[in-house]
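Incident log, support desk, overnight shift.

02:14 A customer reports that sequence design results differ from what the structure should imply. Their input is reproduced verbatim below. On-call engineer (initials T.W.) acknowledged and began investigating.
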């Protein structure tokens, strides 16, 4: 988990995420999947009501998604000795960079269709996290 650095604007969100995860979720993957799905739902709802959205709705939704991906990014960079292989860490960093780039594109020229890829990425990663969690639970039950 990234340190609670007052100079890092994402440290507070990442720290709160970590605290909440440890207190309320037995499995980190489950929490990560939940926040990704929440972001995907928020972006989808924004897409559906694109013409009725408020002035700040897009910024709020993109900021929430960015905080999630910044946490993944920071964790991948800082967890060099962790249990994640280098190729997985590299993939996380590359995917986060793509998400950040797409966010800038959406902010520069807002278009409803540009959110599709962000929504799909969040849903696919969440599905993978849920699948891994269920497989781990089944393995634990078999032992």
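02:41 Re-run completed on a clean worker. Output:
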């Amino acid at each position: 988990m990234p340190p609670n650095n007052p100079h890092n604007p994402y440290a507070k969100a990442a720290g709160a995420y970590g605290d909440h995860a440890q207190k309320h979720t037995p499995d980190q993957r489950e929490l990560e999947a939940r926040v990704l799905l929440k972001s995907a739902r928020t972006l989808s709802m924004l897409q559906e009501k694109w013409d009725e959205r408020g002035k700040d709705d897009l910024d709020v939704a993109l900021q929430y998604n960015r905080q999630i991906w910044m946490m993944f990014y920071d964790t991948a960079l800082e967890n060099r000795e962790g249990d994640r292989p280098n190729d997985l860490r590299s993939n996380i960093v590359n995917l986060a960079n793509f998400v950040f780039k797409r966010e800038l594109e959406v902010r520069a020229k807002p278009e409803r269709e540009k959110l599709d890829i962000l929504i799909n990425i969040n849903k696919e990663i969440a599905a993978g996290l849920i699948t891994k969690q269920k497989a781990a639970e089944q393995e634990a039950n078999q032992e």
